Amino acid sequence: MATVKDFKNDVKPNWCPGCGDFSVQSAIQRAAANIGLEPEQLAIVSGIGCSGRISGYIRAYGFHGIHGRSLPIAQGVKVANKELTVIAAGGDGDGFAIGIAHTIHAIRRNIDMTYIVMDNQIYGLTKGQTSPRSDLGFVTKSTPKGSVESPLSIMEMALSAGATFVAQGFSSDIKELTEIIQAGINHKGFSLINVFSPCVTYNKINTYEWFRSGLVKTSKIDNYNPTDRNQAMQEIMKHKGLLTGVIYHDQDRKCYRELIPHLDKKSLKELELKISEDEFNGLIKEFM
Questions:
Q1: Which CATH class is domain 4-286?
Q2: Cα–Cα distance, 207 to 199 (Å, whole number)
């Protein structure tokens, strides 16, 4: 059986020292090993940005997509080969700005895969501009008088859109983060995991210390029920989004593949996709 070492390769990450993405990478590797996966059973699809490099730092199938487009690629991979465990990964700019429409539709489609967003509340790769998750009044080089746009409340959005697995982690708590990723992978349906992953170079506000002083674990809330969507929404709003753990888990809704009988039986890679010339001409004739 594979160990954490089996999911490590010889590519040295070039993230800034102290970047939260190191912990996300490690948590994915630990979760994969704990579940009992082999490297050839795992596919990592990433987008653009500092976090987009993660697909090259883990020994598994990897695909570095374009900005905001990791989810369409990852969903295609899962439909083509249902036997693969598929993880899409990217930053808050990648998933909640240019890729926000893909995030919403992936949620409603409920394909059996996991989406991990490394949320540092800033654009790090392009030297520190505001992201959709930056707070109102956030000062950067491009917003010297402070951002006039309110941050997206991602957990509220995901719950409202009907997500069947919603969770948040903190890169400083690798034990909880690993457990969350394991639960997300094991969930049958689309899992959205937002990870507070501080940018130590450009974000001097939302630091490790800032998060430690404000985050609340769902495990510390009396009588918290992660299958109660109303309670999940209330607690997210009460704590202004600063909640970690499995926030909501719907175990009853069918995933995308189960709703399409031939996909549930066989992946696209197993289907005969060729048609005869007569069948082709017949199809063309229908539309002429």
A1: alpha beta
A2: 7
